[in-house]
Amino acid sequence: MDHPEQPTAIKVHQPQPITLHPPAASVVPAQPHAVPAVASVVLPDGRVVTGYAVEPTRPERAAPAPVVSRGAVNVALGGVGFLSVCGGLLMLTTFITALATLVTQLITLAAVIFGGAIAVRVLGPGRHGDGTTVNIRRAVFKRNHFHG
User: Fold this and answer.
1) Residue 133 confidence (pLDDT)
2) In whole angstroms, what is the distance from residue 80 CA to residue 74 CA?
3) How far apart are alpha carbons 98 and 83 in whole angstroms?
4) 64 or 1, which is more confident
5) Is 80 exceeded by the pLDDT of residue 83?
6) What is the DSSP string of 56-80?
7) Would the pLDDT of 82 be above 90?
8) Percent of the chain topping pLDDT 90
9) DSSP label at 94?
């Protein structure tokens, strides 16, 4: 019994887009601008694969190289930092010198004021007035004179 070939039913599958699940925070529903083209590929073993054509992604352009090299920028910044430190040390040295001069002048002023007051007390006229000898036995030698 020869059976004539009966046609087999062909089942047609409609392509289903593959959806990736990105993080929920960045999901923004949007309609596509156009319906993508459906492409079919026949594999060597006779199977047919049908799907949407995907445009290849193009890598982003690399950032253009800076006009000035990074080494030159680092050297320049290092020089600016070094000059800032040198200027700060110069100002600190000047401040310390001025402070030392101020302290020296205050000490000199105190010596003049208190030294003058002490000199007036020591070298000034005593309680005995004219500086004559009152009692030779109790006399004290002071300013090349005897005082009693």
Assistant:
1) 47
2) 10
3) 22
4) 64
5) yes
6) PPPPPPPPPPPSS-HHHHHHHHHHH
7) yes
8) 27
9) H
CA distance 25 to 12: 37
Residue whose token pair is 């993508």 = 36
Residue 19 amino acid letter: T
More confident residue, 101 or 1: 101
| Sign (positive or negative) of CA dihedral 78, 82, 88, 89 | positive
Mean pLDDT taken over the chain: 76
**How far is 100 from 106, CA to CA, in rounded Å?**
10
Q: Which amino acid is at 89?
A: L
Scanning the structure block, which residue is given the tokens 């007035």? 129
Q: How far is CA 4 from CA 1, 7, 40, in A?
A: 9, 9, 31
Amino acid at 6: Q
Structure tokens at 89: 């040390």
E strands along 1-84, which residues?
Answer: 38-42, 48-52
- CA atoms of 148 and 140, how far apart (whole Å): 6
How would residue 6 be classed by pLDDT, with cut points 50, 70 and 90? low
